[in-house]
Design goal:
Layout (H helix, E strand, L loop, with lengths): L4 E2 L24 E8 L3 E9 L11 H4 L2 E3 L2 E5 L5 E4 L1 H15 L6 H14 L11 E10 L11 E11 L10 E5 L17 H16 L4 E3 L16 E6 L2 E5 L9 H12 L4 E4 L3 H9 L3 E8 L3 E10 L2 E4 L7 H14 L10 E3 L3
Parallel strand pairs: 1-3, 9-10, 9-15, 12-13
Antiparallel strand pairs: 2-3, 2-8, 4-7, 5-6, 5-7, 6-17, 7-8, 11-12, 11-14, 14-15, 15-16
Helix pairs in contact: 2-3
Bound molecules: 2-OXO-4-methylpentanoic acid.
2-OXO-4-methylpentanoic acid binds next to loops.
Length: 357
């Protein structure tokens, strides 16, 4: 159990107006959580302080070799002003899986969840309530040793910042167009693809620029070896409904084990759908599309929630999915997932965690 020291701001910022468009990740609340790590001492000095800039040496290791990790989760406000997190224990577990890969010291899972709850509770009045909005929570860890040698750092900062946000994609629930990248790759097995670390996202930027130049909003990555099998979008995992079955790439070490992905699989199975986690080639998709069997495509992610895909481009082929409209399964998943998250539906899986108790 952390003994968190709290220093409240004496100059609270103006909150966005109730109906103001928030965008994603552009506005930050009044407070943040910080905790230090020092080799030999462990994690220490957990504190909540006013949101502020931090000062680091230009030689801080994070700037040079990218030893860092981050997480993403959300806080939701219900109609009766209760505040919920969605499966934060899963973010805590994934933090430590990422930390193992990046040689960053583990954080006890209960400390991670306690810190998230504490800072969200302090800034609970910042949680937006218009439909489709929530408080995006960004925990992250950076290596802070002042040293230019390539080695694991001996000191770190763990921080949590909060951002009242709307939909990740400006188009909201409107299906997005996705570019299947055939030149660059995001990750390979044995690399860092399963870890939530900045380098994976840096590696994805060039594909995103190419996609945007051709009016596609996101990139679907293929495997790094054969460049044939579907991996993930980078901001979300991907699902297909093919001939009545729900199919998603298996967790093979190079894709992110998404929490919304796991929840989607559990929901679909509970509705009696066949769910297959396996390799899916781009050729299989093209074939299914040709035969009218590619019924729906959607992405899943904390930021993206359930995001329908209306169009997939691969080299010279453009696959139009469900006439560019949201399909019934995507809509049902979106309604159920958000219904549970905002406290409108019964939480049969025990996924909601209340803040402030
Ligand atoms: C999330 O969904 O929380 C993520 O971290 C994805 C990020 C690209 C916004």
């Amino acid at each position: 159990m952390l003994d968190i020291k709290i220093t409240k701001t004496t100059a609270p910022k103006e909150k966005p107006a109730k109906d103001a468009p928030l965008g994603f990740g552009k506005i930050f609340t009044d407070h943040m959580f910080i905790m230090n790590y020092t080799e030999g001492q462990g994690w220490h000095d957990p504190r909540i302080v006013p949101f502020q800039n931090i000062s680091l040496s230009p030689a801080a290791m994070v700037y040079h070799y990218g030893q860092e990790m981050f997480e993403g989760l959300k806080a939701y406000k219900s109609d009766n002003d209760e505040v919920y997190l969605f499966r934060p224990d899963m973010n805590a577990k994934r933090t430590n899986n990422t930390n193992t890969r990046l040689c960053i010291p583990h954080i006890p899972e209960e400390d991670f969840v306690q810190a998230v709850k504490a800072v969200v509770d302090i800034d609970r009045d910042w949680i937006p309530t218009t439909p489709g909005t929530s408080l995006y929570i960004r925990p992250f860890i950076i290596a802070t040793d002042e040293f230019l040698g390539v080695a694991p750092s001996n000191t770190y900062l763990f921080m949590i910042i909060l951002s009242p946000s709307g939909a990740y994609y400006e188009s909201g629930l409107e299906p997005v167009g996705i570019w299947i990248e055939d030149e660059y790759v995001r990750a390979v097995r044995g690399g860092m693809g399963f870890a939530k670390t900045g380098g994976n996202y840096a590696a994805s930027l060039i594909g995103q620029v190419k996609a945007h130049n051709d009016n596609y909003s996101q990139v679907l990555w293929l495997d790094g070896v054969e460049r044939k099998y579907i991996e993930e979008v980078g901001s979300m995992n991907i699902f297909f409904k093919i001939d009545g079955k729900v199919v998603t790439p298996m967790l093979n070490g190079s894709i992110l084990p998404g929490i919304t992905r796991d929840s989607t699989i559990k929901l679909c199975k509970s509705w009696g759908l066949d769910v297959e986690e396996r390799r899916i080639s781009v050729d299989e998709l093209l074939e299914a599309q040709k035969n009218g069997k590619l019924e729906e495509v959607f992405g899943t992610g904390t930021a993206a929630v359930i995001s329908p895909v209306g169009k997939l481009r691969y080299v010279d082929d453009v696959m139009l999915i469900n006439n560019g409209e949201i399909g019934p399964l995507s809509q049902k998943l979106y309604d159920t997932m958000t219904g549970i998250q905002y406290g409108k539906l019964e939480d049969t899986f025990g996924w909601r965690v209340k803040v402030g108790e």
